Amino acid sequence: MENYVITIARGFGSGGKAIGTKLAEELGIPCYERQLIDMASEYSGINKQLFAEVDEKLRGSYAMKHLMKIPYTYVVEPSDKDFTSDINLFNIQSEIIRELAASESFVVIGKCADYILKDMPNVISVYVEAPEKDCIATVMDRMQVSESRAKELVHKTDRYRSDYYKYYTRGKDWKDPVNYDLTLNSSKVGWDNCVTLIKDYLKIKLGQ
Questions:
Q1: pLDDT at residue 114 above 90?
Q2: What is the Cα–Cα distance from 66 to 166, expressed in whole angstroms?
Q3: Global pTM?
Q4: In the structure, what pLDDT confidence band is assigned to residue 184 with cuts at 50, 70 and 90?
Q5: How do the residues of the chain divide into helix, strand and coil, expressed in percent and rounded to 5?
Q6: Is 78's pLDDT higher than 60?
Q7: How many CB atoms lie within 10 A of CB 182?
Q8: Which residue, 67, 135, 159, 179, is most buried by CB atoms nearer than 10 A?
């Protein structure tokens, strides 16, 4: 298979982003995360700040959004009143991810990419997690914040990522291992070994 995609879902502080970045470097392919916001803005003409506001989070009440309607799966026209809605912003970004997956190899961090690309055979989906105490320690070290602030950030970030995933995947649990090819405990395995394991699995699944 000429091209492939590795999706990385991750708990905050688990090292998933660092693992994905290093993996992409060792494979010689791009790693997309915040870059997708710029791509989506350029593609649609919508201010990138709007994409940043809904980056793996829901604006407003999740419960109200959940009751409002099931997310549609197509990009609406600029003339439509929902053109800058959360759902359309998600679908614009999803369309870019699918177009990229059809033409190049890359690693993508978050963005419900495992779900967006679930029907494509050239995709490996990975979930990276670690015990809460280790995630808190990582956030304290990397963000230079107190233990209480780090704990707050871990809980808050994981909660909004989980709500975002549940909403756009029609009720799926973000942490359910069944959603992924691999679920890795980065504390037990080590970040570098996570990279090695994913590369080994890439060879097994896709023969790369």
A1: yes
A2: 9
A3: 0.88
A4: very high
A5: 55, 10, 35
A6: no
A7: 18
A8: 135
What is the Cα–Cα distance from 50 to 37, expressed in whole angstroms? 9
Tokens 């989070």 belong to residue: 57
Of 51, 17, 15, 57, give the one whose Cα is nearest residue 33: 17
What is the structure's pLDDT at 51? 78
Decide: 150 and 38 in contact? Cβ < 8 Å.
Answer: no
| Paired residues of 127 in beta bridges | 9, 183
pLDDT at position 71: 59
What would the two tokens of residue 108 be?
């993508």
Mean pLDDT for the chain? 88
How many C-beta atoms surround the C-beta of residue 47 within 10 A? 11
Instruction: Report whether 95 contacts 88 (CB < 8 A).
Output: no
Alpha helices in 9-146 (DSSP H): 16-27, 35-44, 48-53, 62-68, 86-101, 113-116, 132-143
Q: What is the rounded distance in angstroms from the CA atom of residue 152 to the CA atom of residue 13?
A: 12
Specify the residue for token string 């395995």.
189
Q: Helix or strand or coil: residue 128?
A: strand
Helix axes 147-168, 132-143, angle to 10 degrees: 110
* 5-197: CATH class: alpha beta
